[in-house]
Specification:
single chain, about 170 residues, mainly alpha, about 60% helix, membrane, transmembrane, cell adhesion, transmembrane helix
Amino acid sequence: MGEEESTVETSATRNEKEGEKPLGEFLEISENPHSITYQPENGKLMSLLDPNVYATKKTIAQGMLDVALFTANASQLKYLLHMGTRHEFYYLLVTLISISIILQILIGALFIVIGRLDVNREKHQPRANSLNNIITIGIFVITIVNILIASFGMKNSDNLATILGNTS
């Protein structure tokens, strides 16, 4: 009995034996530095996602939602200040809306910080992960505060004339 050579056949060596190109030959960097193009044998071009571009777009979208909520809270605060202490939950709502606005400003600042991080760099990843967790918790708290604001909420506009005493 002679010694038989045992070889471990990987997909790369199997592909080379069958005349296929290794994956590296299918990848090319396009003119856009955030895009890597992959062309499998079927000839269709596929674009691989750059995590840094994805994170930046996600941060911008979250920031826009934050601006929308900030605008709504400012409008609620204006209405409440116009109503004054005639609103039965005036002090509670002023406090909750103020907390929501302050938290939104802080979260907005964190969006700016996290938007400047390059998640492709290994040294930025732990900080980006921590900031992302803090932002997620902050948004959760803002959501709870705004649910409370809505539940103690602004009266509908039909009651506004009655409350202000402007009945015709």
